[in-house]
Structure formats: structure tokens, C-alpha cells
Design a protein that fits this description.
This protein is an alpha/beta fold and 281 residues long. The protein has twelve helices and twelve strands.
Length: 281
Amino acid sequence: MTMTTSDSGSVDTVLSVDAIANEAAALIENRPGVEALDKLVAGETAVRIDNLRAGYGRLEILHDFNLRAGKGQALCLIGPNGAGKSTVLHALYGFTRIYRGTIHASDTDITGLSANRKLKRVGIAYVLQDNSVFPDMSVEENLFMGGYLLNSRDQAKAAADHVLERYPRLKERRRHKAGVLSGGERRILEISRALIMDPGILLIDEPSIGLEPRYIDMVFELLDDLKKIEGKTIVMVEQNARKGLRFADIGYVLVSGQLVMAGSGDQVLNDPSVGRLFLGG
């Protein structure tokens, strides 16, 4: 461990690579059991992962991973790059190879279901990290794309109208091409499009990435409404760990494809180890 003086005159602690590795190893050694995870669930369990081993091709990323989130709760995954955070979302949605373990939505085993069947059968929607709007389509047409599994265009239009009524900012721009929207408005459009099928579970990868602070607040206000008012369960990865953990009911820390810490969002945010390793002290 070394001490450095910043331009402002304050003294910052800088952990060496070896110190970080040793502290991370200690966290792995004391990782939480499923009993501790169960205690963090309020009410009915909406999402459950048991002893999951998953990855891509022959590359296993997640090792005996467990997860629990209740209906109407938000769970935020944090950890270093390469820890497997996005792979958890991919496994839940059906983008990975499952080597072992199970995934349940409520009481339904969804381990082997395709992404489309998960969306239509148990209501799991995924908001990707990358910009996924269709820039040459209007806002309204982008929303229609979220209803591609509905039985008719009329159903998709009715669902889009319902979403637009809830979000006046998008309604005002319904005829505008999505490409002219600001980054924050595009992010709200992506989340709104995921709501067309009225999912109960939202998987969201890096909701604040690339956004100005005012739009970050706007996006999190939207997510908070979805959680508190509509009872959506949210499982998210957030690079702004402080923002994500303050919002979340449950915080998980991943290291090397393993869950090493779990607690309420505030507990994880205020843990000294998390501060040193992932929040800059």
C-alpha cells in the first residue's frame, strides 16, 4: 500500500496490485451462502439462480453462482471489469451456454428457455448496454418493435400508446426520428420499448453509461417508478457503483465469476472493502 498526495493536498490511499488480489481472495473465501441471500428477499421471490455455471462456448465465466431478488426489488451487480456481471444478465435472458445449475422466474424453471419464450411466457425483458434504438425509425415505430411478439399490429399500437401516455417527453416526439433524440431520451426510449410486453422482470445493463448527470437522474427516476409503483423486479449492472447501490434494494459484488458479497444496497455501498477495491477509497 502506498500513500499519494493529490493536487488538492489531500492524501489518497493507493492499493498495490498484490494488495488488491489478496483482499479480493479474502472476499471469495468468505462469500455468502444462499441462506444469507434468501434473507435479502422481501416478499415473493421473482428471480432465483442456483449453483449456476455459465459462459460462452467452452469458456466458463460464472462459477456456482447464486442470486435471489424479490418482486418489486432492484438488485445491482458491481465488481471489476471481467467479473461476470453482464454474463449474469445474459444467462438470465438466454444468451449464454449453461453448463450446470438452474434459473427460476417465480416457480417456473426457465433455464433452457429461449429469450423469446422467456419474454412471452414469464415476462423477462432486457435493455442492452449498447445504443439499440433504430435511428431512422420514429419514436413510435421503435416502440412498435418492442411488441414484435404480440399477435397483431393493433395490439402493438395500443401498448405503445399506453407507454406514451405515461411518458409525455416521448409522446411529444412520437413522430420524430429516434436518431435526433438526446442520449438520455434514447435511453428512456430503450427502457420504454422494453415495457411494451409488460414484463415483470427487467434486466438492465449500464443504464447510466455515456449520459449527462441530469439524464442519469431522469433514468433512475423512471426505474424507481417502475419498481415502486408498478412492482417491476430490476436486475441491473451499473458502472456508476455509488448511483446503482443507492438505488438498489440489494447489492451484489462479483469477483472472477463468483459472488463474494451481498447485502442491502446501503450495506454494500458503505462496506470498507468495497470502498477500497471498487469505489476509489
